[in-house]
Specification:
343 residues, Jelly Rolls, 2 domains, alpha+beta
C-alpha cells in the first residue's frame, strides 16, 4: 500500500491575533519594536512660542474670563506632537497666567509641584505654606506638592507669570489630588465657627528657599562666570537644601556671553527653555529658533540642543530652563551624551 503524505496547512496568523486580542493579550513578537524601541523616540517635537503673541491672547482673555474662573485664566502651551496631553514637552506642563489688578485666588493645594517664572509684576504676590511674599520680574517661585498656596495682584497693572509644573506626569500616574482651603485665604486667623475643620498650616519656610530672586540670580551668575568659558550655569535648589526644585523637576539659569554658545547637550528627559533676558538662537536637532525675551522653546528627550547669544551688543543672554531629570536619575534612566563624552 502506497504511503500518503499530508502538507501542513498554513497557520491562520491573522485569526490567531484576533483571538489573542479578544483575550486581552498581544504577541510581543509583533509589537516589541513599536512599543519598546531601541532608542528614545519621544512624541514631543521642537517648538517655539512667542511671548508677545501669547501675552496678547492672555490679556484678551481677561475681558471675559472673570471671577472664580480667573484661577484658570491660563494659556496652556501645547506641543504639536501630542496636543491632547497638554504638555509643552515630555511630561512638563507650561502655561501663561495673568492676574488682573485687585484679583486674588482661593487658597488651594495639589499633588503636582508648581514652579512659576515671573514675566511682569508691579504688585503681584504669592503665599506658600503660610508665608506671603512679593514677586517681581525674573523671580522663580516654588510651590511644593500639597502645600497650601494662593496668589494675588495688589498692583496697578496685570501680573504675568509662567506656570511650570509636572501635571502631565502626575496625571499619567493617576496620582493627582486637589483641595480648596475651607476659607478663601490660608493666611492669618480663620473664623469658620469650627476651628477643628480648618487644616493646620505648617510653619512658614524661609522665603529664600521658596523664591529665587532675579537680582540674586544675576549676582550668582556673575560670581560663577569664568573668563573664556562664554557661558555659565546656575542650578536652583528646593526647600530644606535639596539640590533640585522637586523630586521630579529641576531648574537652572544659563547665562551666555555675547557671540558665544553653550555646549551641545543631549539627554534623556524633556526640557523647556524660557528666555529671561536677551535674544538667542536655539538649535534643537535640525530645527533653529530665534527667541526673544519671554519666549519659550520645547526640547524633546534625547534631542541635541544648544543656545547662542545673538544680542549683538555687550549684554549677556539669560535663559531659565527646567527639565524632568530628577525622576529619571532616581529611576536609573537618566543618560546624558554630553556628560559621557567628557568622562
Amino acid at each position: 500500500m502506497e504511503a500518503t503524505t499530508t502538507t501542513p496547512s498554513a497557520p491562520d496568523v491573522a485569526g490567531y491575533h484576533q483571538r489573542a486580542a479578544r483575550a486581552g493579550v498581544v504577541g510581543r513578537w509583533s509589537s516589541a519594536n513599536e512599543n519598546l524601541p531601541w532608542r528614545p523616540e519621544p512624541r514631543s517635537v521642537p517648538q517655539h512660542w512667542a511671548y508677545a503673541e501669547l501675552r496678547a491672547l492672555a490679556l484678551e482673555a481677561t475681558g471675559f474670563v472673570r471671577g472664580a474662573d480667573g484661577a484658570l485664566r491660563v494659556l496652556t502651551l501645547l506641543n504639536a506632537g501630542h496636543s491632547e496631553l497638554e504638555a509643552a514637552a515630555g511630561h512638563l506642563y507650561s502655561g501663561l497666567q495673568v492676574l488682573v489688578p485687585g484679583e486674588d485666588m482661593h487658597s488651594h493645594r495639589h499633588s503636582p509641584t508648581a514652579v512659576r517664572f515671573v514675566h511682569e509684576s508691579e504688585g503681584g504676590w504669592t503665599a506658600v505654606d503660610g508665608e506671603r511674599m512679593p514677586v517681581r520680574p525674573g523671580d522663580v517661585v516654588l510651590t511644593p506638592a500639597m502645600k497650601w498656596h494662593e496668589h494675588g495682584n495688589d498692583g496697578p497693572n496685570p501680573v504675568v507669570w509662567q506656570d511650570c509644573t509636572d501635571d502631565p506626569l502626575v496625571t499619567a500616574l493617576a496620582a493627582n489630588h486637589f483641595e480648596l482651603f475651607p476659607t478663601r485665604s490660608h493666611l492669618g486667623p480663620h473664623d469658620t465657627g469650627d476651628s477643628a475643620s480648618v487644616p493646620p498650616v505648617p510653619p512658614a519656610h524661609e522665603a529664600g528657599v521658596l523664591v529665587h530672586r532675579w537680582h540674586d540670580t544675576l549676582d550668582a551668575l556673575a560670581e560663577l562666570s569664568a573668563p573664556g568659558d562664554g557661558w555659565t550655569e546656575l542650578r536652583l535648589g528646593g526647600p530644606d537644601g535639596e539640590p533640585t526644585l522637586s523630586p521630579t523637576v529641576t531648574g537652572r539659569f544659563l547665562a551666555v556671553a555675547p557671540g558665544r554658545s553653550t555646549p551641545i547637550r543631549r539627554h534623556t528627559g524633556a526640557a523647556v527653555l524660557i528666555v529671561a533676558a536677551g535674544t538667542v538662537t536655539v538649535r534643537v536637532g535640525e530645527t533653529v529658533f530665534s527667541a526673544g525675551q519671554g519666549d519659550t522653546v520645547a526640547v524633546p528627550s534625547w534631542a541635541r540642543w544648544s543656545i547662542e547669544n545673538t544680542n549683538g551688543a555687550k549684554e549677556q543672554a539669560v535663559i531659565f530652563a527646567y527639565d524632568e531629570s530628577p525622576l529619571l536619575r532616581a529611576a536609573g534612566l537618566y543618560r546624558a551624551e554630553h556628560e559621557e563624552t567628557h568622562r
